[in-house]
Fold Olfactory receptor.
Amino acid sequence: MLQIQKKKEILSNLTSKFPTFLLTGIPGLESVHVWISIPFCCLYAIALSGNSMILFVIITQQSLHEPMYYFLSMLSAADLGLTVSTMSTTLGILWFDTVEINLNTCIIQMFFLHGFTFIESGVLVAMAFDRYAAICDPLRYATILTNSRIIQMGLLMIIRTVVLIVPLLLLLKPLNFCKANVLSHSYCYHPDVIKLACSDTRANSICGLIDLILTTGVDTPCIVLSYILIIYSVFSIASPKERHKVFNTCVSHIGAVAVFYIPMMSLSLVHRYGPSAPKVVHSMMANIYLLLPPVLNPIIYSLKTKQIRKIQRAVLKLVCSKRTHI
């Protein structure tokens, strides 16, 4: 009896329902975290200023109140959300070595992190549909993508996100976690968190798989199908010049899809098949996954969209002229 009681006491000391997780910065480079924070700060500044600028330009310019730019503003808002959701923990580690985070805070961070990821995936599908409608059915484009329909699409993305995310995160509450709660990244990531659970996580894994199927598993084929139909339609155009012009309108979106899905799939593969990989690989992949889309999307769309580029130049000139007067 005494041995059984002792085992129970040891088990209760090793596990907890209210754990404190330890976040990880850049493994092996803890002594130079302050210096590493400089490029991180630059990337965060580019992401925040670039996406804020695109949102400001689209909201203030009446000429950009079109479906394509509405979807672009949604993409920028999702990128801003992704950036802000992890910036505090990442910079907290690099500047102040603040590595502790409790389960409730972790769940809140995952809600916004995974939520904005799901929303961005949905926006990329909507943008693919926008390109399909503009190229394959241009005469009905204005009647297909009305303002009310765009609002409905945006609400559908938010509803899908909440319905999928909330059960996934609520299933974390009953779990017991081992005392050595060291996470692989500078933020809470669901597959990383459930690895540390000592209790049965089959329900969590099934729910995570269902979420993956209903987001990436649905969104990726929809984007691919849209581009198959676009390519089929474009090759029916006789003039090579017209083909080039049409494909040029899709370049920005293809770039946005690539910078979103490639790092996400790479991180998933690292978690699934690369547990023996160096910790620094996990850490770098995790940071690339979150920072690459918010940093590159404003640059891609600014380079390929003349209207946005012109207005951004005008805004920058105005800001610079005000500074010189001050």
About this structure: The chain has a mean pLDDT of 85.
